[in-house]
Design goal:
mainly beta; 9-cis-epoxycarotenoid dioxygenase; single chain; iron; carotenoid dioxygenase activity; dioxygenase; oxidoreductase
Amino acid sequence: KENPHPTQNLRFSDKYGWVGSGWTGGSVCGCVCTPLPPCLDGAYIRIGPNPQYFPRGPYHLFDGDGMLHALTISRARPPTLCSRYVRTHKYLTERAAGGPLIPNVFSAFNRIGLANTNLAFFAGRLFALWEADLPYAIRLTESGDVETIGRHDFDGKLGVSMTAHPKVDHRTGETFAFRYGRAPPFLTYFRFDADGGKKPDVPISSLSRPPFLHDFAITEKYALFVETQIGMDVWRSVFRGGSPLRSDPNKVSRIGVIPRYAADGSEMRWFHVAGFNPVHVLNAWDEEDGHRVGMLVPNVTSVDRALERFDLTHAQVEKVRVDLDTGMVYRVPVSTRNVEFGSVNPCYVGRKNRFVYAGIGDPTPKISGVVKLDVGDEMAGWTRMFGPGCFGGEPFFVAKDPGSSEADEDDGYLVTYVHNEINGESRFLVMDTQSPELEIVAAVRLPRRVPYGFHGLFVRESDLRRASGP
């Protein structure tokens, strides 16, 4: 069965969804081609949309209920794959009703959460995230099963929602986040201390209309936001239905820079930059001169198609510098290749990094390979294609020695799931990031298909134990 995507270019078919309820238990995986690296002691988890019931009416890829695909790796036993729904309020309500009640969540942005976008580990907990709802705390059991603990509001201090892309500073233990919405203030910035204590909201009133702010970045001194040509047309959504997101070709994009520890939204400064429409931000940093901040983004060059015609979307990585004294914005293309779903070494979040890892769109949202980009002076690149009929997801970097302060930035592995559409096999791949061809050094054959999804992360065993506590 297929349910047409609103624009007919994406279809609800077996390569995107869904993994039936009978396939969701933990299963021991097949052969491991070579021994897995010792640093992979924990779990790789990817999240994505997987409708619990066949949807009514138009279906958007963003609408599916959040499902976690967790590969638990232990030195004591074979790898185990578990696929479980995040038991959100929406999921439980529809399960009790025995069918779908809300036909198109994405079009409504109505805070009936899907928890289908991203995962983050902070404040000693593992969270499944969706930007129009509160985080859902989850945990992995010793057997590798996935359990939903429930919505988490940080002792009532977190409002109605939080971004799906919080930024964790691994040096200080702090986490930075925001929320946006359809009513003023359209943007609110906030942070959590190393113990998970939420600090006061910083409402930002310098936006005149509802934005679409999916991601942002931090440096040691600042937080950076991008107000793109994509915004929310609330009244059109109310009276005509469908997605509230609209592009405005006459709008000039802006980069907002606010002090990292700002106490008031009036400290936000905006810098205009034409044709700048990133959905994700790879990283940001403070330049040594103290007067500029840098940022790496996959800039979407076809903004009018960015959210509806994925197959026609093109994004190319740019290095951007903002001069805080003169207001000038400088942009340099790093790669013209169509890449998205990028990441950096997590220990370099907010610091100047040299390497970026990203998925190659072929076309987006299908990822046919991964690329490693040197964004320093050399501007070099290395590629690993998955092969004919094989498509994967966002690559995640895992350091070989996470406790070493002397390790090279790229001394580690890229991990991701890859599905072969020809023979139906799914695999977990491990690639050496320092090899010239991003050599596959280990692969695990998975017991069932893992649908194409969104974001993921690797959580070490010690952190999994922390997240399983009370």
